[in-house]
Amino acid sequence: MILTLTLNPAIDRNVTADKLVFEDRAYILASHESAGGRGINASQVLHSFGTGTLAVAVTGGKSGKLFEEFLAQQGFPSELIKIKHEIRTNITIADRNGLAIKLNEKGPELSAGEVAKVEKAICGKLAGVSWLMLCGSLPPGVPDDFYARLVRSANRRGVPVLVDADGDALLAALEEKPAVVAPNQAEAERLLDRALITRAHFTDAARRIREMGAQSVILSLGARGAVGVAATGEVFEAIPPRIEAICPIGAGDALAAAFVWSLDGGSGFSEALKWGVAAGTASAMLPGVSFPTFSQASEIFARVEIRQAA
C-alpha cells in the first residue's frame, strides 16, 4: 500500500481550446472537471498500474462536496479530513498545439487543529504502508516544516518518503533526509537560486540537492526527460522519445508515482527512473490533465533511453 497526501486539493477544471494566442479569441472545444491535486493524481496513476494506494486529503465547502463526488468515481480508497473553508479550483487551458496555461488558487487557510488532524491521520497509518508520498503545495496556515515533521515520523518507522514540493516546504523537508525528492526544473531553480540551462547544469543541480539532505533525487525536465541521482551517488539520465505533446501539465505527478511504483515492486533506481519518464511522457500525450494506463506507459518505456552520466 502506497499512501499519498494531498494537503491542498482542488477541483481541476480542464479546458481544451482550438488555439491560444494573444489578442485574439479562442474557441472552447471541450471542458470537464475532476478531483485534482498532486497526491490525488499520484494515487490515480498507482491505481491504474495495479498497486494498492490510499489517498489522504482535506475537503471543505461546496467545492469539497463536488471533489468528494469526483474522487468516489476514481476507484481507489481515500480518507478525507473535513476543514472549515472551501477547497480551491484550478484551471488548465490547453490547445491542440500543446500550449497550456495553468492557473491555481492558493487554497484555503487551515487552522492549527485541522493541521494536527492531518498529521495524526498520516502518522496513524505509517505502520501499514510501504511508501509515503507527500505531494503538492502547503495551503495558508500550514507551517513550512509540516512535510519535514512527517518525513521524520516516517523515517522513525522505516517508511521511505517521496517529497514532491516547492519552496520552503521542500527546503525544510530536505533536512530530514527523505528517501526521494522530485522537483521539476522551475522548483529546482528556485531552491538553488540559479538558472538551469545545460545538461551539466541539470546533473550538478541534482547532485547539489542530494547534498542538501535527500537520499536520492529525481529532477524532472519535461520533454528532456529526467536526471536522477541514486542513494549510491550514481547519476542517470532518462531520455524520452520524441512525441507530440498535447498537455504536459500533470506529467510530473505521473513520473513520481510510476517511479515509486517501480521501486516498490523491487526495481533498481535506474529502471524506476525509466518507468517514471515513460509515465510522464505518456501523460503529456493525453488531452487535458490526464494520466496513462499501464499499457500506455509500457509502450513508451521500451523507447526511453537510460544512461549513466559521468
Q: What's the story with the biggest beta sheet?
A: 10 strands, mixed
- Distance, first to last CA: 35 Å
Strand content: 15-25%
Please report the total strand number as a whole number. 14
- Low-pLDDT residue spans: none
Q: Tell me the helix content.
A: 25-40%
Cα shape: globular
Report the CATH topology name. UDP-N-acetylmuramoyl-L-alanine:D-glutamate ligase
What string, H for helix and E for strand, traces the elements in order?
Answer: EEEHEHEEEHEHEHEHHEEEHHHE
According to CATH, the homologous superfamily is Ribokinase
What's the helix count? 10
Query: What gyration radius follows from the Cα positions, in whole Å?
Result: 18 Å
Mean pLDDT: 95
Q: In the CATH classification, which architecture applies?
A: 3-Layer(aba) Sandwich
Q: Helices and strands: which structural class?
A: alpha/beta
* CATH class category label: Alpha Beta
Number of domains: 1
